[in-house]
UniProtKB/TrEMBL annotation:
Transmembrane segments: none annotated. The lineage of its organism: Bacteria, Bacillati, Bacillota, Tissierellia, Dethiosulfatibacter. It is an enzyme of class 2 (transferase). It catalyses: pseudouridine(1915) in 23S rRNA + S-adenosyl-L-methionine = N(3)-methylpseudouridine(1915) in 23S rRNA + S-adenosyl-L-homocysteine + H(+). GO terms for molecular function: rRNA (pseudouridine-N3-)-methyltransferase activity. Coiled coil: none annotated. Keywords: Cytoplasm, Methyltransferase, rRNA processing, S-adenosyl-L-methionine, Transferase. This is Ribosomal RNA large subunit methyltransferase H. NCBIfam families: PRK00103.1-3 (NF000985), tRNA_RlmH_YbeA (TIGR00246). The gene is rlmH. GO terms for cellular component: cytoplasm. HAMAP family: 23SrRNA_methyltr_H (MF_00658). Its EC number is 2.1.1.177.
Length: 159
């Protein structure tokens, strides 16, 4: 299976980079992992709604340009469906069993995702009603994907 994560913004902090590298290494036994970062747009401090939409549209265009048309697209969206770790592993396994060999997860920037990206998705997933920094969220997502593969294979993993 191929897993792609497209995210807005560059990871700068060393501790996030190290955590991402660790999960990338762990996941290499289960899937082909591709991490794609697209540049975020600069947002002024007192941003208008119109400027916010323009920024999300620009970032959305960058995301869509990296998207594989044959991939099953999951956007991380606060209004998406919340799943348990077991349910996420079942979803990944069901997709694989149905012949879907490529899943793309999309993490938006600090302002969220453009409607074009959300509308392109096959599934909207929410981890929480809380807001997380997108750098940290990439680590959380990678951990949950890793956990999912462990569950799928019946391998032990801390609950």
């Amino acid at each position: 299976m191929k897993i792609t994560i497209i995210s807005v913004g560059k990871i700068k902090e060393k501790f996030y980079k190290e955590a991402i590298a660790e999960f990338k290494k762990r996941l290499s036994s289960y899937c082909t992992l591709s991490l794609i970062e697209v540049a975020d747009e600069k947002a002024p401090e007192n941003i208008s709604d119109k400027e916010m939409e323009q920024i999300k549209d620009k970032e959305g265009g960058k995301i869509l340009s990296k998207l594989d048309e044959n991939s099953y697209v999951v956007v991380l969206h606060i209004q998406g469906k919340q799943l348990s770790s077991e349910d996420l592993s079942k979803k990944i396994n069901d997709l694989a069993l149905s012949g879907q060999s490529h899943i793309t997860f999309i993490i938006g920037g600090s302002l969220g995702l453009s409607p074009d990206v959300v509308n392109k998705s096959n599934f909207k997933l929410s981890f929480s009603k809380m807001t997380f920094p997108h750098q940290l969220f990439k680590v959380i997502l990678l951990e949950q994907i890793y956990r999912s593969f462990r569950i799928i294979r019946g391998e032990p993993y801390h609950k």
